[in-house]
Amino acid sequence: MTKSVTLTHPSGILKGSIKLPASKSEANRALIIAALSGEASELDNLSEANDTQLLQRLLKSDAAEINAEDAGTVMRFLTGYYAVTGQQKVLTGTPRMCQRPIKVLVDALRELGASIEYLGEEGYPPMKIGAFKGNGNNKLKVRSDISSQYISSLLMVGPMLPQGLVLELEGKIGSRPYIEMTLSLMRHFGVEADFSGNIITVPHQPYKAASYSIEPDWSASSYWYSLVALAHEAEIELPGLRQQSFQGDSAIAGIMEHLGVHTEFTESGVKLMKRKHDHHFSFDFSDCPDLAQTIVALCAAKGISLELTGLESLRIKETDRIQALQVEVLSFGCSLQEVTEGVFRLELGLIENSAFTFRTYEDHRMAMAFAPLALLRPTTIQEPRVVRKSYPRFWEDLEKVEFELTFEE
Ligand SMILES: O=C(O)C1=C[C@@H](OP(=O)(O)O)[C@@H](O)[C@H](O)C1
Ligand SMILES: C=C(OP(=O)(O)O)C(=O)O
């Protein structure tokens, strides 16, 4: 197992065109919908991300025990899929996955007529899924302030239910663009759905086979934005990204106008160029939680004071991301504190270290958010293999723009 990678960049000048991995969020929805449609859909540009490769394998597997590893979408989407198609499966994951809550989804599926039994702690994987008695209630109230993945999982199986599905979302709607992405892909595969106020209605109807080309991953693009912001000079092209995207993380383009990167949308994708940055930035990450780590690392490095809200879901992701950030920003002499409920402030410090070392907490985004700092100092990232979850070629792509990498076994 590779222990660490140390990165340096001799010139600080970045030029090149990078083929990003495809979005694992889009891919994993398209795979579930294609499996539910029962017809052959043509999915182009499926992600090489482990989360997508894993779901592809699991959907073909007839094993009784299914391991979703550390992939939230795989765990949540397969729970809905197996429950409503009545497949008898034991569904488990990594030790961390077994600490990520799933009660809201399981309660909703049980009301719809699913039989699901917890094999460990109530409310958490592993679970045993059994027969589906599909005459349950189809009008449900569901909390939407913990994870949008529960809602997406329910929506995708909605058209298969005898009476369809009506969801009333309760509480704040976190990660809303991911719910919209689910509905957009469902519509692409021929079903109608309505999202008005906090009510989502999905009538009973068949999915239709369709072809779909998965867009490159806007979340992965965020690391390239950060690299451009930290470089002396830069011109980076990211082919295939679309201005009209299903992905909420395309918000990175607007955010980075404040933090030192201008985006030009071209016929073939985007071109990133350096520009002046603000000295203070405030942002609500409720719609795009996966961008928070990139922005915290970048602002700490560039000395941009930062106020963040909408971080509630970060504590139950691959790691407790707030805690991980609080520890790692100490390398810059910075501190990340909750100043009033839900409001975090990054207090700036002095960068005194001659080199950086960052821990990654089994979280791909910790590795990729902090790697760009190698443009300032030699930077060591521990457990670099974590990137395989969403962006397995991340280290090779850095080599393409002349980073020098030394792996330690
Ligand atoms: O539906 C999806 O594809 C995702 C939804 C988000 O999770 P939450 O809804 O749990 O915030 C996001 O953080 C995750 O990376 C992918
Ligand atoms: C939170 C993430 O993934 P998931 O919840 O699907 O494991 C992520 O990729 O940042």
UniProtKB/TrEMBL annotation:
User: Could you confirm whether the keyword Amino-acid biosynthesis appears in this record?
Assistant: yes
GO cellular component terms, semicolon-separated: cytoplasm
| Single GO molecular function | 3-phosphoshikimate 1-carboxyvinyltransferase activity
Q: What does the entry give for GO biological process?
A: amino acid biosynthetic process; aromatic amino acid family biosynthetic process; chorismate biosynthetic process
Q: In which pathway does it act?
A: Metabolic intermediate biosynthesis; chorismate biosynthesis; chorismate from D-erythrose 4-phosphate and phosphoenolpyruvate: step 6/7
- List the active site: 290 (proton acceptor)
Q: Which reaction does it catalyse?
A: 3-phosphoshikimate + phosphoenolpyruvate = 5-O-(1-carboxyvinyl)-3-phosphoshikimate + phosphate
Function text: Catalyzes the transfer of the enolpyruvyl moiety of phosphoenolpyruvate (PEP) to the 5-hydroxyl of shikimate-3-phosphate (S3P) to produce enolpyruvyl shikimate-3-phosphate and inorganic phosphate.
Q: What is this protein called?
A: 3-phosphoshikimate 1-carboxyvinyltransferase
Species this protein is from: Pontibacter qinzhouensis
